[in-house]
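Dear colleague,

Following up on Tuesday's group meeting, I ran the structure prediction for the two-component complex that the binding team flagged. I've pasted the input sequences exactly as they went in, so you can double-check that nothing got truncated or mislabelled along the way. The structure tokens for the whole assembly follow below. Feel free to forward this to whoever is handling the docking comparison.

Inputs:
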Amino acid sequence: MKHLFLLTALIIPSFVSAKPASNMVWMPETLNFVENGNVQKGEQLAQSCASCHGEKGISAMGMFPSLAGQTANYTYKQLRDYADGKRDNPMMNSVAQGLSDQDSADLAAWFQSLPAAQNKASTQDVSKAELMVNQGNGKKILPPCFTCHGASGKGKRMDTPALAGQQSEYTVNTLMAYKKGTRHNDIYSRMRVIAKQLSDDEIKQLGELYQQMK
Amino acid sequence: MNDSTAKNLALSHMWVAFSAFILACFMGEYQVLERSGLFDSLSSPSVYFASVSTHGVLMAFVLTTFFIMGFGYYTASHSLKVPVWNPKLAWFGFGLALTGVVMAAIPLLTGLASVLYTFYPPVQAHVAFYIGATLLVIGSWVWCAIMVVMFYQWKQANPGKTVPLAMFATTANAFLWLWTSTGVALEVLFQLIPWALGWMDTLDPGLARTLFAWTLHPIVYFWLIPAYTAFYVFVPKQAGAYLFSEEAARMAFIVLVVFSLPIGFHHLYMDPEQAKGWKLLHGLGTFIVTLPTLVTGFTVIASLEIAGRLRGGKGLFGWIGTLPWGNPMVLSVILSLLMLIFGGFGGIVNASYAMNAMIHNTAWVPGHFHLIFAGTTIIMYFAIAYYLWPVLVKKPLFSKSLALVQLWTWFIGMSIMTTPWHVLGLLGQPRRISSVQYNNLLTLSWEPYELLMILGGLVLLGSACLFFYLLIKTQFSASTEPFEGIVEYAEPLHEVKDLPEYLNDFKLWNKVIGVLMLISFGIPILQFFFMDTYGSSGWGY
């Protein structure tokens, strides 16, 4: 009996395995592969994306993100995450499963080549968001948003999205999804950890601020 | 002898050096203000890190290299009593180095090279930064070549004679720089530039850090040797006496050059890419290199004591009071040695493995190198400038009393700034932070020290402006009568006779350095080619 108990104790951990947030690993080969995406092919493929994401990658509906000016690495990773089921969206899961790695890289290159949306300045108060973007929150030990997303919200090469010009509603929905944990394809839970500590008001202001950022 | 070429070269180089210096001083004050977090309008991590990177490069690469080259050209020509060899080549080197500075300045000032003074891959800067830094180094190699050629030409023309100590020290520094800069040159040429140009996908930060460590410690002695040169060749004369021992001086320069090179791993004590045995070896070497500093301290103080006693000083310490404190060179050496004592103590903490763990990557480290570099070394650069400027421009120093005020304020400002900086390190403040936002009791306890640092920085900025003002006024104000003074070198207390060749040449010492470098860096570098390591993609702009 004692041995059986010991054996069970030893075996149980082997059935417990954590799944990664994403299957994407940014090896140099992957970075080069995405960098060499074919813009022309991407443009052709993107015709079927236009109904939701807009003709030139600028969406007219808040529930769909604008993709124009998005960093290619980020778009590529999202498409692969959708395909792998690491990010949940019934429509995008089936779309992405129909795309090859090369298609994803071509689409990512095309959307990166488009100019991001230029929106007018909001009249709403965005002071809390400005503080978060530029200084973070020392009390909550939250780093400023700009450290990853860039001072003008253009994102960075390694897996951090451009946010400037993104529709407010979409940014708010995304942050809320991270906050609730329904979106979970961020490696090391980076955005989930941050979003959990943001108030709803801060999230709303961040949406407004990034929408008007150029 | 017409030495106008040497004078023009010296002035041109030194103006570049001190222009970089004054610009970097304003940046330094901005940095202490920004970091304090007291001024919201100044708060910008992007600007802060661009400023820190530019400040470091201007002070550590531009000020030093140009000053050393300018001082070297004049010293070579004046002490050997020959014109500068191949002036066209010298001007070409100057142009190359200046082009490099401008080229590196553009990405630095536009925030595209905020990789700090040590380059820190895998953070990646714009390629113009790396190419600019390379041109600066190549320009300085031209200077090294000219110094070495002049040294050996003189020896050939004067067989059996002793090379003047000032030129011996300058050539020692040229050899030191050739050896020193090879590490960073290898890193930049074979890693950083190809990587920044996209020819290589990844770079091994371990190898990059090892190569930079090759440069990182001896570069400090490259900066320090002009200060030691002034200690030995100018100070005793200015104090009114003799150099206590020229042989000791030569030996000190040789040991500095030989042992400052194979010891860079004390900068890597906490790094994983080198095994502990190599760190121990380099750590032991680090303690050997304290010896020439102790010899220098002894020799200079002995020379000063002779001067003080010749001037009537009595008793154990009575000679200190009778020293000519009103002479900028003498005042500088006293203040410099005071800062060296405290800075040297801090350096021993850094070099000791266990104590290093306590202060590693804390504010202690910039506190230490500001005290040693900006204090001990730079105050002697001021002294040399005050001494040479009247000779170079043939006009008297604009105001000796203001020069003394400037030196005192630099010392006081440096003491006010670096003492709290050390304390902040002991209180756990990390270095390389742009702000202190995590409000808790620990970070609140840092605030008074931050305030003191702002005050120290202000005093230093005022002192730097005064220095720059004095140089301008000396050179450009109308003078009724030309300055007739000349540069005078200290005579040794005992005449140098039958100097062994190893104290008058570098052939043997270059071989010794070659062997020591092979032992200290051979396997630590080669291991990266034997082991299966992973490189990193660039993180950058």
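The first helix of chain B runs from residue 4 to 36.

Cheers,
M.
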